[in-house]
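Bug #2210: token dump truncated for Colanic acid exporter?
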Amino acid sequence: MLRKVLMLLSGNAAASVMLLARNLLVARLIPVEDYGIAATFAITMALVEMSTQFGLQQQIIQSKDGEDERFQAALQGFQLLRGVLAGALLFALAGPIATLLRIPEVAWAYQVMAVMPVLRSLQHFDIHRLSRSLRYGPMLLTAGVPALVSLLAVYPLALWLGDFRVMLFALVLQEALGALTSQVMAERRYRLVLDRKIMAGSLRFGWPLLLNGFLLFAVMQGDKIIVGRELGMVALGLFGMGVTLTLTPTLILAKSAQNLFLPLLSAALRAGDEARFVTTARAAFQASLLIGLVLMLAIFVLGVPLLSWLFGDKFADLGPLLIWLAAGQAVRVFKSGPSTAAVAKGITTNALLPNLIRLAALPLAWGVVLEGGTLWHVVLIALGAELLGYFAALALAQVRLGVGVGPMIPGLIVALGLGGIALILPVIGQTDGLTGAWPSILFVLCAPVLLIAATGDLRRFAAQHFSPHNQEAPRHNA
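Reproduced locally. Full output below:
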């Protein structure tokens, strides 16, 4: 099992780090204002991802019919149908999106991006089916190969174009290669079936995920829209860089945790072992706390020095905000544990309430900015809403999943306390990145140990699954 975890972490990290490197290279090669325009492509990219959030990839892992060839072909057919519809919708919305962001001259770029949901919908679902039996290689290569080629293409594109178009064509190239790589890595022949019964079942499973995808789009991109529209493209360039630096490690860690726990939770439920599901779910919850804290500590130590090393003074105004942005991303990681357990149980509505709470904070942030607020106010309001959403997610887990959160309380108190210290130390002048004072260095070294000591279910899960005497999982599930 340890080998599987290391494969997941290294594979997801490799792909995400390459995409991070691509974004950083683009930011270095083009002006800040152009990077602000490029950051709007992330908004459109999120719209693409939102339009495909029907949970079909999770469904093929979670469903008892996940190994059936016709079921897989029907999911692939449904995926392609939705991808074509999403592409047509994005093409139609290109003008309004550009107008909303007050850059109407860029509308053509959003029309080009309309091809991206179509390309994404052509991915072969075998890469997800194989992860049912913990065979992650095809899925990781499908993410890694396009990321590498997209990174390598940036410098030639910058020499040729020299502006925001570099990011546009790098993104399109990534999606095209993702579809191609998934087809190459598949074991089964690619088939498409339109089965109304399976599509209806997918709609029942996926409509809450689609609605949640819309909420996530509004939540994660709403702040950018507010900043870009009201504070300008330079401010959006700064904010977009902060999100890039903090979101990338968030995605690496949260995705790896979901890839690990979702098959294990689903297997426990298929076996009818509710007790194993509950203990594994609690371990997933506590793992998300540890991962979120590690993310904050990494930004605490490396954030400002990395920003200075990469860009000099170009993004200097972002430095004080980084740890606060990291705190918001950490809380999003916290929520990934309850979300994964809910998906394993087929309850896909649990993520809605936490994201509705986060969405409700956007009008407040917009009003504060209109009254003279700054990026600080946007970030602080977002962090408060994320915390409220996480508490709602825990309450839903206890009520709807049957996972009592009482054993979570010690770890939760420790995680929130340590996170608060990470926010306070820079304010009182106890850290300066890698050259920080001894209290900060000791804090970074001791914090993960303290949290592990407070998370008993996670320790027992690790002892059971990562012991040298633990047998490898079978290659195929029954």
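Output looks complete on our side. The first helix runs from residue 2 to 29. Marking as cannot-reproduce; reopen if the truncation happens again.
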